[in-house]
């Protein structure tokens, strides 16, 4: 299968590209990524010269480029998005453009190339915020509350509309919070790990009692892959780690694992409209896809801390924004690693 992975140079995208290349020796991957602040071509330095991998720098809102690439693919795994809630609160423009318009642009390209399979990678945040009990599932009503989650909800609706109206063969997955290698250090886990490695304090929002359901990124990639290959067209699958932690508990664990005390916590003003609790009931994916979140949280957290300890050059360049210059100097590549046509 020839798979077009949008947003492949980001956190989940990079992990998914390596997942597919390792597990499906007959598949080829083309990454389409705009290399925003969150995309890093350095992630693929091990793939240089690999004939099964191609990188194309470009925007998912570029209809002509999307059309050309979709024509050459059997499947699109749409991962590209603006993803940070705090940034969406500052300015939602790029979120609406990439997440909503970008998704429709790809759906239009798939529609014009009838048989191209489309899998949309989405978030549990489209379902809103939970009280102290219960969990989201595929039948939960949409109730997005941040500009980020509202833009992802818009994209989900457009994907369903493309299936119902135009028969674009699509599936959607809504996943809980990921963590693992290549995670951009603006999100809580990589931010806290790298701050501590730099001897800096870690900013805990509000009362620290907001809850997230953590899933190791490789388990999410396995779910995406199963949904793509075995999911029923038109269906949605929810993935979650069955691993809820309050931010305060998560913070204590990171501090303990890294040998620091609670004096490193800096309580800061809460995020406006901060969703209190997310949790996923992944029974449908477990039942229909034979999927499960295999990585226990402590195991995944230790592996993640180890990865950041072992890759200081990566996260230091990412934190300073110097990774783009690095890549150009090192590899002299800007744009396409192999011709599109
Ligand atoms: P990320 O921010 O690390 O990466 C996003 C990637 O998309 C980057 O490589 C960026 O360059 C690229 N991109 C952004 N705008 C683009 C555009 N206009 N055209 C082409 N490429 C563009 O994000 P992530 O954490 O890897 O999340 C990936 C996807 O998974 C998103 O759709 C997100 O909503 C979803 N998701 C993430 C999580 C999580 O915990 N990280 C959980 C559930 C769902
Ligand atoms: P984040 O990693 O931004 O993911 P999301 O908002 O998509 O769930 O945040 C996870 C939780 O951590 C969320 O409740 C906000 C909190 N948080 C902090 O307490 N401090 C921080 O510096 C960040 C980035 C997040």
Topology:
Elements (H helix, E strand, L loop, with lengths): L1 E5 L4 H13 L4 E6 L19 E5 L5 H9 L3 E4 L6 H6 L2 H20 L4 E7 L23 H20 L3 E6 L2 E2 L8 H10 L4 E4 L5 E3 L1 E2 H14 L5 E4 L4 E3 H12 L6 E4 L14 H7 L7 H14 L1 H9 L2 H9 L10
Parallel strand pairs: 1-2, 1-4, 2-3, 4-5, 5-6, 6-11, 7-10, 8-13
Antiparallel strand pairs: 9-12
Helix pairs in contact: 1-7, 2-4, 4-5, 6-8, 6-10
What this model shows, in words?
The chain has twelve helices and 13 strands. It is α/β, with parallel strands linked by helices and 341 residues long. The chain has one domain: NAD(P)-binding Rossmann-like Domain (Rossmann fold). The protein has a seven-stranded parallel sheet, sandwiched between helices. Strands 7-10 form a two-stranded parallel sheet. A two-stranded parallel sheet has the order 8-13. Strand 1, helix 1 and strand 2 form a beta-alpha-beta unit. Thymidine-5'-diphosphate binds next to helix 6 and strand 8. Its cofactor is NAD(+). It catalyses: dTDP-alpha-D-glucose = dTDP-4-dehydro-6-deoxy-alpha-D-glucose + H2O. Keywords: Lyase, NAD.
List its salient traits.
single chain; 341 residues; alpha/beta; Rossmann fold; seven-stranded parallel sheet; two-stranded parallel ribbon; 12 helices; 13 strands; globular; binds nicotinamide-adenine-dinucleotide; binds thymidine-5'-diphosphate
